[in-house]
Amino acid sequence: MTIKSMNINxxxxxxxxxxxxxxxVSWVMLFAALFxxxxxxxxxxxxxxxxxxxxxxxxWPIISTVLVVISSYTLYLFSKNYKSNVSKSxxxxxxxxxxxxxxxxxxxxxxxxxxxxxxxxxxxxxxSIIQAFSWIHAAHIFMGIIALCWLLxxxxxxxxTNFNFRVIHxxxxxxxxxxxxxLMFVTMFLI
Amino acid sequence: MTYAHGKHAAPTTFLxxxxxxxxxxxxxxxxxxxxxxxxxxxxxxxxxIRWTLAFPGEAFPVLGNLLFxxxxxxxxxxxxxxxxxxxxxxxxxxxxxPILIGAFGNYCIPLxxxxxxxxxxxxxxxxxxxxxxxxxxxLGSLFTPLGGAAGGWxxxxxxxxxxxxxxxxxxxxxxxxxVLGVSxxxxxxxxxxxxxxxxxxxMGYFDMPLTIWGLWLTAILNAIFLPxxxxxxxxxxxxxxxxxxxxxxxxAATSGxxxxxxxxxxxxxxxxxxxxxxxxxxxxxxxxxxSFFARKPAFGAKATALSMTTITILSTLxxxxxxxxxxxxxxxxxxxMTLTMxxxxxxxxxxxxxxxxxxxxxxxxxxxxxxxxxxxFVFGLGGLTGLYLGxxxxxxxxxxxxxxxxxxxxxxxxxxxxxxxxxxxxxxxKMFGRMxxxxxxxxxxxxxxxxxxxxxxxxxxxxxxxxxxxLYNPFVYEFLEKLIPMNKFITYSALLMGVGQLPFVxxxxxxxxxxxxAPANPWEVGTLExxxxxxxxxxxxxxxxxxxxxPHEFGNPKLDNGRDFQYQTEELAx
Lengths: 191, 574
Ligand code: HEM
Ligand SMILES: [Cu+2]
Prior knowledge:
heterodimer; A: mainly alpha; Four Helix Bundle (Hemerythrin (Met), subunit A); about 0% strand; B: mainly alpha; Cytochrome C Oxidase, Chain A
């Protein structure tokens, strides 16, 4: 079942690009709804963190941020190089995957630390929001890592159109998750 | 407009043909069976609910002792809550959605736009299988120790938190809805892409049948708003399973405090678009059928398509009208009221176009037409009652009464059900190559129509008289005692409506095997699906057709081919 273009002169986007754009809209709405929930709960309180709660230490969140930002950069380098330079791009892809795993570990450390300082999920909305949102985000990072592994066959497929789409889409997804984390970092830990 | 699938060989084994098929026509039929199955279950639940309201404290006849042995056949109160919860959930998410969107969407989109399949056939198959998983989760929830979810189809906290529903049923409900959301989003991505990329050469957006417009807009709303519901039920699940406190407040939350109203916001941001998600396919189909059977071009077809689009956009801005009684600030209630009223403008254009299509037509009263005209009637009533609910001052009184129940059954249940039947009678010959019996279809129509109006009009009357929804026995309140006879009337009407579905079931099953062989174009219409044999060959179109005119070219005096219509593949007669 191959998809053929009926009219090669037309500059229409490929169905896969259109479909992925729509999927991204869905994901944006998912996280937008979470941020809306956060905003409503936060503005209900007279101060944030609510009375009796301490700010979360920035140690692990900053590490997570650094890891995820670098991973986006290495993935970008991979997508630039995989067609021309196999050995270099291999390094970039593996580093992205490792950085992704590192991100998950740093998140786990964050949750552990929160749990040990009395900010477990049952302690109220402040901890609920940070923990639950980072779980949902981490679950997506996990899917992202699987998707990255799906790119490992790039050596033989560098010139395959379908594979090129795969690289573009996995990258978009990964950068999107990076941006979501940055928003979470700023709104939950910094301000 | 520029892409097409290649021809591919038909599958040969039973599994690849009927279970794991990629073929949009098979997937459409799978969704049809799935939806009809749940329609039956939801219908039975409705009868149990109605029995309880008409004969409170009396044993349900025949099956009662089997279902509720501990109470001598009387529906117990907790079961009653479960019944109305699952009735709503099943009808909305597991009957209407699969039939209107899953079945007709899958079956009609490629055929009507001249494509060989959906854009992503495997994705499409997965969408169905995930829907089956979701249905299994929901049905499974009935067998947990404390029974299924009982917090209403809207599952507001605190009813739906551990405080209101301790059992696993509500958690499974959340998961089931989440999984269904994944399935529908996948379907939606597929539909939208297919319509954008796979229209036959020459088919502009306004050359698409309005059915496709409806399905396409529905898919767009689905892709945007289902994730919002997804977020809501994930948070609710977290509250239930991991002890977060998003929706718990006051004494229910050990410390800190969430907000039950937050869930209502999230739910209705999704929920109001959802009601249009359900009605848009039916609107599209009705807009086409009225033209097909009045034998004249759809009046203002372009305006109809654009009003549907406008309604789609506006429907995202009005959700607050479900929450007027939540102590919203008056500034907000009035804003939402005004926005709600704004929807009347495109709705009125749409409705006027329907009447314009009928005006001076040479109407053929075949069954799809009868059902379509039924939709015009019941949707008119439903839409008008919406205005009273959209007005803050009247809604404060009417909110959460049976008037609301009557309103949404007219707009949603009645309109969509009749629209679904219209589509079934219309495309049955295409799907199975046989005709359904017209006489039985007409009997089905009239009994359904009488029963349905008895039920839903009755609901509005008792609602106006002050009867609240979701009460196990409203008649413990003295001022409602006088409503018992009216409730009996509603229940008898519901029974009539239930009985009225038997001719349909018989007709469907009988015609499947023994129906008259369908002629090539039984309804004499020119859309692309009727240019190919019924049922169509595996990849639909031997050659991808080229479209040269719109879908509603009827009664053109310049036509000299002995027909009163022309196919979309023919040059417009000049
Ligand atoms: C024509 C314009 C419409 C207006 C102005 C309107 C207005 C409203 C309002 C204000 C309510 C809330 C009533 C309350 O809870 O107090 C409501 C409820 C509802 N409407 Fe509509 N509506 C319209 C059309 C529709 C359509 C087309 C559908 C579905 C296809 C629909 C389905 C529903 C449902 C399902 C509910 C109740 C949900 C619940 O509380 O369980 N409405 N409508
Ligand atoms: Cu609404």
